Every structure is written in C-alpha cells, then in structure tokens.
Amino acid sequence: MPPPISLHDLSNLDAPARKRLTQRTEADLSVYIERVKPIIEAVRTEGDVALSRFAGELDKSQVPANAIKVRSAEFAGADAGVLPEVREAIAFAIENIRKFHEAQKPEEMWIKEVRPGVWAGDRCTPIDSVACYVPRGKGSFPSVLMMTAIPAKVAGVPKIALLTPPGPDGKVDAATLYACGLIGITDVYKCGGAQAVAAVAYGTETVPKCFKIMGPGSPYVVAAKRLLSDIIDPGTPAGPSECIVLADETADGRLAGLDLIIESEHGADSSAFLVTPSRAVAEAARAAIPTYWAQMGEQRVSFSSTVLGGQKGGIVLTRDMDEAIAFTNDYAPEHLQVLTKDPWATVGRLRNAGEILMGRHTPTVLGNYVIGPNAVLPTAGWARTASPLSVFDYMKRTSLAYVTEPAHAELAKHAHRLAIYEGFDGHALAVSDVRAKLLKG
Fold first, then answer.
1. 365-378: per-residue pLDDT in tens?
2. Residue 338 belongs to what domain range?
3. Which of 16, 31, 177, 232 can bridge 78 by disulfide, Cβ–Cβ 3.0-4.6 Å?
4. Which residues are catalytic?
C-alpha cells in the first residue's frame, strides 16, 4: 500500500524544516565520492579490462573488453527491435529538437566597430570532442540521446562519443541505437556510471579521451564528474529528476496531481512538489494521485510513491501565491510547470528554473520528448546560475580584435596609464614610445 501524499504546510515549518524541503539527493555527495574513487582509479590504470569487469559487477551485464564499442552489425539490427510507431515518434522528436537547436545556433563570427578604428567581436567554433552520456539504470532513454547528441551535431562537433550502460543481454537499447542512426552518431560505447565518466576523462584502449561530457546521471555519475572536473569539463550539472507544479486556486487539482507524477516516477532519488496556496487544489491532487498509480506498473508506482510520500516530494501548501512563487524561486527546479489563471503573467515573476512550461496543455512530458527545447536541465538548485543544455555547450567563443593605425595612439595612451597604475612595467613598455618608434621604423 503506497504511503499517503506528503503535505508540507509552510506556515507550520521553521527555517531548518523549510530548508530541508529544498535539499536534493545529491546535496551531499561525500558517500558517493568515496565509492567512485576506486572505480575511477581502476579505469585509469586498467582501461577496458576495468570497464568489462564493472559491466558485470555493476550493470550485471557481460561485455568482453574487446566488445565495448558497438559494432556495425548491432546498428544494422536495431530497426527490427523498435516498433514502427516508436520509430515514427523518434523521427518526429528529432525533427523538432533539431529545428530548435538550429535556430539557437549563433552566427559563426561577428565583429563591430566599438570606436573609430577599433574593431571587436567573437568567433564561435565547436569543441573538438565531446561525450554524450545516456543513463539506463531505471529504464531506456533514447530521448536523452536525442537531447544530448542533436545539439552536438548542430554545433558541428567533429568527434562525438556516446556512452550508455549495457542491458542484461550485453547490448545497447535498440531504440537508442536506432536514434543514433538517424542523428548520425556512429561511436557508441557500452559503459555507464562513474566508470564511463572516467573512461572519457582518461581514455582507454577503446574509449576515446574527450574534452567534455554532457548528460544526466545518478549521484555516482555526478560524483565522478566532480572528482574529474580538472581533467574533463563536466558540463551542465544534471542529476536526478525534479519538478515543481505551481498552481493557483483556478487549477484543476486532478490535473496538477497527474502532472506531479511525471518526474516523480523517474526514481526514488527524484524530487517533485505541487506548490499551491489552495487547500482545495491540494486535496483534489492528493485524492487523484492514487487513482493514477492504480493504472501504472509496480516499479514506477514504487518510485513515485516514495518521492511523493517523503520529504523530497508531495504538496507544499503556502499562505498565498506570493509565498508559492517565492518558494519556487528559492527551490530553483529543473522542471517548472505553471497551472495558473494567466501563466504568461506568472512567468514574469519566476526567476530560477531550468525550464518553464506554461498552461494546461504543456505538461512536462511534452518538454521531455517532443517540443524541441533541451530537456537536459540543471538540477539541485543550479538553475539559479546554470542554463539548459544547448548548442552553446558544444561550442566555445574566441574573442577577436583589430585596431587600425589611427586608433592605436588613443588606446595606447589609456592602456599605458592603467599599466603604470597596476605596476606592470612590461605592459606599459609595450604601449610606450618604444612601440611608436618601432612602428615608424
């Protein structure tokens, strides 16, 4: 019997209790960091042999050290393992995701005259190599592949490696391989968890060393990224799923409860809250959610009920809408769904969220799969400072500057004064009369 839905009344909570509501699973990674240290070291020293061993020990999958990279025959057989309607849905999603990220892509170069004779701008180029991580422990997620790999392809990254845990049969999920074929990803490796992060950080006999890794994962993956952040760029901080459904008194509590289930079923380490000032909406949601669980599979009910019946999920009842919005901004959720009378007015008051989905017809599941914007979003409060995964994550900017001869004298005069003030003799010398004489000569 699932536990009752938690009801957290903010008016009855002191500051420490309120703070606990905002804490996520990966808030304290100390335990995970200690566990992944030996995994990382084993991959660094043993390479593919360690990846094969961890596939058996951690993924319960037999993957020989010489079969870590997916072979062309496995790609060829992927179509047969995917239902036609699923293939159609994957193609539909790919089209929307590609269109969004193509529109997002910056121009390759811009430069403008900031003062007469002084030109400055940016040039955008793709990162040379990136790894896309697709988790699998709680299911198979071709959608994560699409969200991570498509912007990399649009950005023009020349070397893209896909990492994903093997299934019990030692194979990569068929739908994921099918999507790889449509996107144009050919380098796929059967490894997951902390060992996958270590593999692309150091490189192995089979897995290439990459400059950056993108994609969500378990606390083990997050811990490995943190430990290896001085070796590989860990990208957007994306951990276990989380959401807030923000609802005013006009919302249908049954609909709010339905949408609350979406992220809560990802795993027991997820976080999901309905935040509302309306007790009627809250009670309607609490009554409806068990009826939805009755139509779901046992594992997903277990995940959802654990989240919604604990301290990291349920319903947050506020005094008014101002307090509901303040709590939401403080929480900075990965996914934020707005069910208010005028969501366009509400969105102007929301500052911190990975994505904001407005209205009754925009549930998080559409954002996860098919609208187009990226669904790999900052978690654990990082939405206060970080952004969704995008084309920009696979590119870097190089500043450009050009100064004409007539403009040089004025710039040199001011630069010389600042260099003298800061005590940099060489700086000052480089824009002094010494340079002027050399330019004339």
1. 999 999 999 999 99
2. 7-24+240-372
3. 177
4. 334-335
